[in-house]
Amino acid sequence: MQILLTFGPKFVSEAEIWYGIPEFNLLAKNITVPGLSPLFPDVHCTANHDVCQLITGEAEINAAATVTALVFSSIFDLRKTYFLIAGIGGINPKLGTIGSVTFARYAVQVALQYEIDAREKPLDFNTGYIPLGAQSPTTYPEDIYGTEVFEVNQALRDIAIEFARTAKLNDSDTAIEYRSHYATNPAYKAGSQPPTVVACDVATADVWYSGKLLGEAFENTTKLFTNGSGIYCNTAQEDNATLEVLLRGAIHHLLDFGRIIVMRTSSDFDRQYDGEAATTNLFIAQGGFLPAINNLYLAGIKIIEGILHQWDSKFCNGTKAPNYIGDIFNSLGGTPDFGPGNGFGSSSPVGKRSALYRK
User: Fold this and answer.
1) Nearest to 54 by CA among 8, 89, 94
2) What is the b/e burial string over 213-250, where b = at least 16 CB atoms within 10 angstroms of the residue's CB?
3) Which of 50, 62, 128, 193 reaches 20 to 30 Å from 80, CA-CA?
4) In this predicted model, what pLDDT tens digit does every residue of 218-254 receive, in sequence order?
């Protein structure tokens, strides 16, 4: 297998957009894998198994269970596989707009924190979310679980962006009209523009959140957890779970963590425009759903074809990462460019993990 598409669809359309396309037939081979979602029990592949599709089911638990079943099944040889983690999400209007395609370097599990109802927070707190082990929203977490942040191959991300930018992205009249409301706030200029391809980072949470206060809170969480490097722009419910399983597979030499691309297309805004209620933003049809679905294919196919067409000359042996890749525990080696100082010097992930447990 050269490329594996992974999806965690709330809407089956995210997967079905890849069926009946002219480039290849993803339904030529349907391979049942024990442990996959009961709703999506098969991996779908082309006849030569060059491209396959895995549907994880929605949210973190489904994603972790499904990807674990695949990675440790021994049915597929994934050692040279490129993983295109793809789905739709909510866009931060400071960075992009509905219909935009985003590619992440960091995936941040933003809701892995303490939480108090914002109506009961101290006046000097800007949110009711507080990092684990800390006593203020602006302090790095002291209790580290290991799934807070993943960093993927920046060079591969940039190649994927180059491929995706050759696509003509889809839009809709409803999306054009809705995004025009964001032009009244200069901070949301990007939100008022037509869809583009954007390099920015993804926030994972099981909760489907909406509103300026939560959006800004998780912008700050992303910056905090990545030591200022991460730029939050899109939402996800699966990505950190998927990446944790892929990391564990890489530890056992079952796959190459440097061959992961994290792509999200934008079906809705993560917050309201000025003068709109957060509930309206959450429930109204913004016109971005169909463009986001279509752009999964329109941008994604450029990446798949680019990798396949240049397999022997460029991609077979992998793409060297210029940056650190992996988790906060440096489980794959190297030195993370995020984390609480120099507390990760040990070569054993278990040693590092136990050293951070609260006494």
Assistant:
1) 8
2) ebbbbbbbbbbbbbeebbbbbbbbbbbbbbbbbbbbbb
3) 62
4) 999 999 999 999 999 999 999 999 999 999 999 999 9
Contact (CB, 8 A) for 99 and 297: no
Q: Tokens for 304?
A: 């798949």
Q: Which amino acid is residue 197, in one-letter code?
A: V
**Listed residue (259, 255, 251, 246) closest to 315, CA to CA:** 259
Q: Is the dihedral angle over the CA atoms 345, 348, 349, 355 positive or is it negative?
A: negative
Phi, psi of 179 (to 5 degrees): -70, -20
The amino acid sitting at 38 is P
For 336-353, the pLDDT digits (tens) are 999 886 343 334 343 344
Rg of the Cα trace of the chain? 20
pTM (two decimals): 0.93
